[in-house]
């Protein structure tokens, strides 16, 4: 799919249209993310051993039923959902053709948009929203103008979609159960497995099932938990998992949940308490008070 996508981008297509992405496919990729968030991109010309640097001028539009977008790609996406009250929306009829209607009203629509943006430039708002990373110019113009006019923040749709991301929801649930059992204390993965298998609370049962733990001596299971923590080091609900100190007895890496806060500039950072010895798993007690711590391929058309 990406070679065709690359060819459309190099040709300068104003719109790259990816139609009907299957429900089983998660639409994402570093190639796509680089294309939509950088001013230019080097691409290899098919059939030749040379690269061509082409400006990224295309708008990428993607459609699909129950479209799934990867978390990194979603940060570069403005989702829009068409809601219908029909069980078979493809059978619905409308009194007009939206494409023909848009063509008929093009002059009126373009004039309205230009007037709207002209007013924004002549009367810039005093308070602009925090710029969206990699899209600062759009954020300071189109987004800022809509918010100043009393319209909803377009970025809000992206944030709402992130809440529906299964991986984000899983991370949130694991963090909540981890905090309920271990608080912000650091511990080895062996101690984690021992305590999770010993307890009978809903949080113990959730973590036991989520990580498929059956024995605290299961090194493969412990390694799988460690791999999951490494991959899922993103911030959720102002908390994140980070590697801690090395256990003096076992020489194994410990892990902990830390609180992440905003500084005066809105920059995220983790705050830690001084290192502490991890308690034995059997003595682990909940700590609710946070220390001051930190099948098919979609069609592409230009």
Helices and strands, with pairings:
Elements: H1 2-10, E1 15-19, E2 26-27, H2 30-37, E3 40-44, E4 51-55, E5 59-62, E6 68-69, H3 71-74, H4 98-104, H5 106-122, H6 136-148, H7 155-163, H8 166-182, E7 187-188, H9 189-198, H10 202-210, H11 219-231, E8 239-246, E9 253-262, E10 268-270, E11 299-301
Parallel strand pairs: 1-5, 2-6
Antiparallel strand pairs: 1-11, 3-4, 7-9, 8-9, 9-10
Helix pairs in contact: 5-6, 8-10, 9-10
Please give a structural write-up:
Helix content is 38%, strand content 16%. With 302 residues, it is of the alpha+beta class. The chain has 3 domains: 77 residues, no CATH class; 56 residues, no CATH class; 118 residues. A hairpin with a 6-residue loop joins strand 8 and strand 9. Helix 5 packs across helix 6 and helix 9 crosses helix 10. The longest helix is centred in the middle third of the chain and has 17 residues. The protein is elongated, with a radius of gyration of 25 Å. About 12% of the residues have low confidence.
């Amino acid at each position: 799919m990406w070679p065709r996508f690359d060819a459309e981008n190099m040709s300068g297509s104003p719109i790259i249209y990816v139609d009907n992405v299957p429900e089983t496919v998660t639409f994402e990729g570093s190639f796509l993310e680089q294309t939509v968030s950088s001013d230019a991109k080097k691409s290899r010309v098919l059939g030749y051993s040379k690269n061509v640097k082409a400006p990224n001028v295309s708008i990428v539009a993607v459609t699909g039923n129950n479209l799934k977008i990867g978390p990194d790609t979603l940060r570069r996406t403005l989702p829009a959902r068409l809601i219908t009250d029909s069980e078979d929306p493809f059978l619905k009829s409308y009194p007009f053709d939206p494409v023909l209607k848009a063509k008929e009203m093009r002059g009126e629509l373009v004039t309205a948009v230009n007037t709207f943006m002209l007013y924004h430039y002549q009367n810039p708002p005093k308070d602009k929203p925090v710029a969206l990373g990699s899209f600062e110019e759009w954020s300071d113009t189109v987004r800022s103008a809509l918010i100043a006019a009393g319209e909803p923040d377009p970025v809000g749709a992206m944030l709402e979609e992130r809440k529906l991301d299964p991986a984000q929801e899983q991370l949130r649930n694991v963090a909540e159960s981890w905090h309920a059992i271990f608080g912000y204390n650091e511990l080895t993965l062996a101690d984690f497995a021992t305590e999770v298998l010993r307890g009978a609370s809903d949080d113990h049962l959730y973590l036991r099932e989520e990580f498929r733990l059956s024995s605290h001596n299961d090194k493969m299971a412990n390694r799988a938990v460690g791999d999951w923590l490494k991959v899922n080091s993103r911030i959720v609900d102002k908390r994140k998992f980070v590697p801690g100190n090395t256990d003096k007895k076992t020489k194994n890496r410990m892990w902990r949940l830390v609180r992440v806060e905003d500084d005066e500039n809105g920059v995220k950072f983790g705050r830690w308490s001084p290192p502490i010895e991890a308690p034995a798993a059997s003595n682990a007690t909940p700590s609710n008070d946070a220390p001051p711590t930190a099948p098919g391929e979609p069609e592409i058309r230009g």
